[in-house]
Amino acid sequence: MLGCRVDGFTLKEAVELLSCFIASGKPHHVVTLNAEMAYRALHDPELKDIINRADLVTPDGAGVVWATRILGTPVPERVAGIDLVQALAWQAAEKGWRLFLYGGVPGVAEEAARKLKERHPGLNIIGTSHGYLSKEEERELLQHLKENRPHLLLVALGSPKQEYWIAQHLKELGVPVAIGVGGSLDVLAGRIRRAPRFMQGLGLEWLYRVLQEPKRVKRVLALPKFIIAVLTQARKLKRTKRLK
To answer: Would you say which domain of life the source belongs to (predicted)?
Structure first.
């Protein structure tokens, strides 16, 4: 889709795959792909390469699910970053996986950790950090992660910063699973409310988010461009098939 790989796993299958990643002990990068990121990657070869080299790329947004259907290779369902995190938290509490939460404004990761522990007794969150670190503080964070080796590292620096950060540091950290989770920590911390089920079902979660955070409207302007790019790709595919 627009040159980006999208993996056709259900949420249940994605959690099972990540469980295998953790069991392997080897580092893995998970990308939660939405329309805005996919459109940016169309004009950012380095980001596109990071996405396509990732070990799992989930269809995070309704726009991506729509695009795969239009292009003739539909994914079974949307696998949003927030749903993936919540499903993994259940598994982590049961299996003893260690988590680290990195990103958001000061206080968000800590509050998200507290609320996750309330929902999942026994969940082992070994640390948190906000996403506004100095160079020295970031070096200390990297050292802490190398020494304590969480099984799951949730990185909420916003896209594409979180994708670049994971790609740059994953190998040295050796974390079995690092996931770029965008604004998921804000939702988990209760700073942002998630859209009602009916809006999620209609693919309007992005609109609900904009109503809560009007400053995000500039980012939404990428959606019409994304739609045009997908329809252009679909026309080219149909033309190619006719020529064959």
So the answer is: Bacteria
Contacts of 241 (CB under 8 A, 6+ apart): none
pLDDT, one tens digit per residue, over 94-105 is 999 999 999 999
Tens-digit pLDDT profile for residues 133-182: 999 999 999 999 999 999 999 999 999 999 999 999 999 999 999 999 98
DSSP letters for 149-179: --SEEEEES-TTHHHHHHHHHHHHHT-SEEE
Domain residue ranges in the chain: 11-243
Nearest to 206 by CA among 179, 183, 233: 183
Among 140, 184, 168, smallest CA distance to 29 is for: 168
pTM, two decimal places: 0.90
Neighbours of 193 (CB within 10 A): 11
Higher pLDDT, 239 or 193: 239
- List, in order, residues 6 or more apart from 188 with CB less than 8 Å away: 82, 85, 86, 111, 112, 115, 116
Which residues have C-beta within 8 Å of that of residue 106, sequence separation ≥ 6? 130, 132
Report the distance separating Cα 79 and Cα 31, nearest Å: 11
